[in-house]
């Protein structure tokens, strides 16, 4: 009877890192899904031009990113402890140490996480394009409201006016003069 109890305890001790790893993957997936929702909300806010809403979303994103970074530190510690002092393990290295059911669950979680991360990258790329377009529009409007004065200084035809400080500066007075 003692042998059975000891074997069960040993099996549970061997399964504990796998179960902890799957719990971490599940929390990673949940946080990345939340980050994806925030990215979609950011797209809507950018389209509306709602700067207050954008700032609130950025704060929420920063909180979610901090939580993901903490989870990643926990994952690294768990995997390092599981590696028995060897080289740091990846998820692929951990899979053979799991039983079949745990392995399938971990692979499913990893696949879902990868899908969410890929979708998040695509939405973030779209948001970046929206921000760049907004900045281009603002620059165009500033150029329309504050046109550049004609160059009144003589420069030789082969010299750049930037050399004399007359680039795209919006200043009406050059303090170096």
TrEMBL record:
Key word Coiled coil present: yes
Residue ranges the record marks as coiled coil: 54-126
Listed GO biological process terms: bacterial-type flagellum assembly
Biased composition (Polar residues): 151-163
Family matches, as Gene3D superfamilies: FlgN-like
Pfam families, per database record: FlgN (PF05130)
Alphabetic keyword roster: Bacterial flagellum biogenesis, Cell projection, Cilium, Coiled coil, Flagellum
InterPro entries tied to this protein: FlgN-like, FlgN-like_sf
Annotated segments matching region Disordered: 151-177
The organism's place on the tree of life at top rank: Bacteria
Protein name: Flagellar protein FlgN
Organism: Geobacillus stearothermophilus (Bacillus stearothermophilus)
């Amino acid at each position: 009877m003692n042998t059975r109890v000891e074997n069960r305890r040993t099996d549970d001790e061997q399964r504990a890192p796998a179960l902890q790893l799957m719990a971490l993957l599940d929390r990673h997936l949940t946080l990345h899904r939340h980050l994806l929702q925030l990215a979609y909300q950011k797209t809507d806010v950018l389209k509306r031009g709602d700067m207050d809403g954008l700032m609130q979303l950025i704060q929420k994103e920063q909180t979610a990113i901090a939580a993901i970074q903490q989870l990643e530190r926990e994952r690294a510690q768990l995997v390092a402890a599981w590696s028995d002092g060897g080289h740091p393990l990846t998820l692929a290295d951990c899979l053979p140490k799991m039983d079949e059911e745990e392995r399938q669950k971990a692979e499913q979680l990893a696949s879902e996480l990868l899908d969410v991360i890929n979708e998040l990258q695509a939405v973030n790329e779209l948001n970046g394009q929206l921000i760049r377009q907004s900045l281009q529009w603002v620059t165009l409007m500033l150029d329309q409201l504050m046109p550049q004065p004609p160059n009144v200084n003589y420069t030789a035809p082969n010299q750049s006016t930037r050399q004399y400080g007359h680039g795209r500066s919006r200043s009406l007075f050059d303090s170096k003069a």
